[in-house]
Amino acid sequence: MPNTDTSTRPLWKRMLVRRLKFLAIVVVVLGVLLGGSYLFAPQWLLNANYAREAMAAQLDKKSVQAGDTRWSYYEGGSGPTIVLLHGFADSKNVWLDVAKQLTPHFHLVIPDLPGWGESSRDMDASYNIDAQAARLQAFVQTLGLGRFLLVGHSMGGAIAGTYAAEHPEHVSGLALMDSFGLKFNENAFARESLAGKDPLAFSDAAGFWRATDLVLAKRPEIPGRFVDVLVANNVKDHAFMAKVFDELREPSQYLAVQNRLGQLTMPVLGLWCNGDKVIDISAMDSLRNGLVHASGISASTLIGCGHMPQMEKPGETAQILTAFALSH
Predict the structure, then answer these.
(1) Which of 25, 51, 70, 232 has its CA at 20 to 30 Å from residue 187's CA atom?
(2) Which residues sit opposite 60 in a β-bridge?
């Protein structure tokens, strides 16, 4: 019969066995917790992943009351300041991949725009481009940001362009990424939008994937329970999305930047994905042709992406923004 008396084993072997048993228990417990979280609390897992990505990007999540809004924002890095504005039905988290490459060289401020993400909203207030630009000024003054490079994507681009025209003393450079607010060749998205249908609102997984196919050139791999969370969040925001969507359908809004191009005196960068099915790349021509007083005009086109360069081409996007910031 083999000797099974553990007391005869050397001390180092007994300690090793205990540690292995402890690690096995930890692995099992973590597996149960993560598996349970995925099934029953996928929103918690998504938020934990955002927190992990923010930490990797050297960003801290902060909040501040500025004007009528309790702003939630990321801040981190050192160097010249860059403010990054997200688009319609989006949040500050969309910039995390780009931020990871910028914080070693720049001080970043990345807010949830008022009404979106974790920032506060008032259903009785206006959230059109002009109102958001005014709120941005309150945010800038509260944080004491001075001068900075202002980057806006999609709806955030229209807010950035409007803000830069009205507050040039704060904006050292303006970068518009696949920006709303400019004239462009009419596409299916524009026709549906002007007819009153929001292609970015959905109520089930099929609708989620239709919207994803609209804004991205290639479908990402997303676990099913995470899709459920994204659908639920979109449904929760339907009333607010419809309100803002109707406001943005006014000509003064979808031409907000176009009507102010002559007021822009700082260096301006236009950055577009060639496959954008939301804001057609012809908007770049409107931008360049209208910048009669800008001190510098740059244009960059990314291949193989749709409406979201910061998600689909984060490395290239960060490189282009870095080059633009350093050249001015």
Answers:
(1) 232
(2) 75
Strand pairing category for 268-273 and 297-302: parallel
Question: Global pTM?
Answer: 0.88
* pLDDT at residue 30 is higher than 90: no
Helices 224-236 and 42-56: angle between axes, nearest 10 degrees: 90
Condensed to tens digits (0 to 9), the pLDDT of residues 285-318 reads 999 999 999 999 999 999 999 999 999 999 999 9
Give the chain's mean pLDDT. Answer: 92
Q: How many CA atoms lie within 13 A of 52 on its CB side?
A: 6
**Locus of tokens 């992406």:** 305
Contact 137, 168 (CB under 8 A): no
Q: Where are the domains of the chain?
A: 11-38, 59-327
CATH number at 59-327: 3.40.50.1820
In sequence order, the β-bridge partners of residue 64 are 71
Cα angle 11-12-18, degrees, rounded to a multiple of 5: 90
How far apart, in whole angstroms, are the C-alpha atoms of residue 237 and residue 155? 17
